[in-house]
Amino acid sequence: MSLAAHGHCLRGIVGRELLRFVHQRSRFVAALVRPLVWLFVFAAGFRMALGVAMTEPYQTYILYEVYIVPGLVGMIQLFNGMQSSLSMVYDREMGSMRVLLVSPFPRWYLLLCKLLAGTLVSILQVYVFLAIAYLYGVQAPAMGYVLMLPALIVTGFLVGALGMLLSSLVRQLENFAGIMNFVIFPMFFLSSALYPLWRLREGSELVHWIAVLNPFTHAVEMIRFAMYVRFNVEATLIVLATTMVLLALAILAYNPAKGMMARKGGPGGGD
């Protein structure tokens, strides 16, 4: 297959995902409402719990919002990655996944295109959220919004590959919705998205070590450092390595000869 044909395939898959996102306006609203509620309500409650009066200097009570915004960015990507994988289960039940995977393009390339499409959608959501947070007063250095883009791409692939792997293990749409909640909430709350690791360690040594072993923690730290024009080498290497492993497992799982699709009767979900 020529390079132009591969490019046409990529445009088709990405365009389909973007059109689906545009037509599902409730999905876009939900993606923004969730982190905004945490930013406006949870952070305000946290300030009250700290006993920080609203009469204090603005910089004093905005510190927690500055800290959790990268964590909420990770939340957007985490939920979107699972949502994109949910659409894969739906496509498999409807049969459109079979049409995609029997095309002459390599299966790994098709899955990568699907991951890239979901990642681009999540990045669009992230920057809209960051624009609202900026108007609210949570502002990072201008260069930080540029430098965090590679971190967002890697994180999008991380959560997307995880969701894709899970989608290969589930046959019915209803079952995947339950698994999503079982995965999303532990990954988010047992991470440094809302509290720094040292604070978690003060509360529970066990929770601290679970957060350290959670790859989402390192994805959030990678985004957080990049947003404030710094580079976390350790977090980046961990996220890249985890992404490669999950991606390899997802591609293997969708291999009709070796993976879960072989044991489920192919991408259409039949026996």
TrEMBL record:
Entry GO MF terms? ABC-type transporter activity
Can you supply one Gene Ontology CC term for this chain's record?
A: ATP-binding cassette (ABC) transporter complex
Q: Which residues cross the membrane?
A: 28-46, 66-90, 111-136, 142-166, 178-198, 235-254
Q: Which domain of life is it from?
A: Bacteria
Q: How does it sit in the membrane?
A: Multi-pass membrane protein
Task: Tell where it localizes.
Answer: Cell inner membrane; Membrane
Cited InterPro entries: ABC2_TM, ABC2_TM_bact-type, ABC_2_transport, Alc_ABC_transptr_permease, Nod_factor_ABC_transporter
One Pfam family it belongs to: ABC2_membrane
Primary subcellular site in the record, as a coarse category: membrane
Q: Which residues form the ABC transmembrane type-2 domain?
A: 26-257
The alphabetical list of record keywords is: Cell membrane, Membrane, Transmembrane, Transmembrane helix, Transport
Tell me its family.
Belongs to the ABC-2 integral membrane protein family.
UniProt xrefs under PANTHER family: NODULATION PROTEIN J
Q: State the name under which the record lists this protein.
A: Transport permease protein
- Native species: Modicisalibacter ilicicola DSM 19980
